[in-house]
Amino acid sequence: MKRIVVAGAAGRMGREVLRAVVAHPGAGLSGGFERPDHPELGQDLGLLAGTGDLGLELKGGLAEAGGQAQVLIDFTTPEGSLANVRQAGRMGLAAVVGVTGLSQDQTAELARLAETGPVLFAPNMSVGVNLLLNLVREAARSLGPDYDLEIVEAHHKHKVDAPSGTALALARAAAQGRGVDLERAKVCAREGMVGARKENQIGIQAVRGGDIVGEHTVYLAGPGERLELIHRCHSRSSFAQGAVRAALWLAGREPGLYDMQDVLGLK
After folding, report:
1. Beta partners for residue 217, in sequence order
2. What's the pLDDT band for 140 if we cut at 50, 70, 90?
3. Choosing from 155, 186, 216, 231, which is the catalytic residue?
4. pLDDT bracket for residue 27 (50, 70, 90)
5. For the chain, what is the domain count?
6. CATH of the domain at 60
7. Which of 106, 119, 131, 140 is geometrically suited to a Cys-Cys bond with 174, CB 3.0 to 4.6 A?
8. Do 198 and 159 fall into the same domain?
9. Residues whose CB is less than 8 angstroms from the CB of residue 101 and which lie 6 or more positions away in sequence, other chains included
């Protein structure tokens, strides 16, 4: 059984991860933690997750909560995740990071940290989304530049980054399939007299509202037809279940930066 510690355990995703760890027969919950001033410190993790008393208290840091763990799962914030991965490395833990909104410098630091301990980073832990990445890459390669490519993503009104990390990952997959530079090809907004669409553009549009968990649609629109590849997330539990699957796969791996494509054997 692989022992898992959960960062941000009192948050929405943290509680989902707690439930997923408790439910998985191959996983054991080592602990959970929040920032040192969190109002729910000392609460039983099982009561936070709605699974019943587990005899494990919410702690104020990884050093307190993760002594028996093998893997950290973190869905907190870019700054918080990096700090937690640094601490995980000092403690000899593998780290699964599902946070979005990392800057280029932060992503580079995560890669450096992975040189000394195994780190799995995926902006979306959903198994379905990671299969979709492969489908988009292959569709973009097969259909070629005659099919215009647009990505529309929708999330709840509290999401702070746009486009979503998943939309950007889909755009990268499309760019790989087309053999183009994403930074040159992507268009994240259109307004006014923008002129005709240029060849090989990859459009990304963001919608924010209500309590939408996550929805991504990839349009490949060609002459006389269009292909739509759609993923709709009905519950955050899919992310949590994917993260637990990733943690069980990552435990005991050699240092390196991995992603869900590795977990699913899609590379």
Report:
1. 152, 230
2. very high
3. 155
4. very high
5. 2
6. 3.40.50.720
7. 140
8. yes
9. 77, 78, 160, 161, 165
159 is known as an active-site residue: yes
Question: What's the CATH number where 158 sits?
Answer: 3.30.360.10
Note whether 229 and 248 are same-domain residues.
Answer: no
How do beta strands 225-233 and 214-222 pair? antiparallel
pLDDT in tens, 207-251: 999 999 999 999 999 999 999 999 999 888 999 999 999 999 999
- The CB density around residue 264, as the number of other CB atoms within 10 Å, is 17
* pLDDT class of 143 with cuts at 50, 70, 90: very high
How confident is the model at residue 165, as a pLDDT? 87
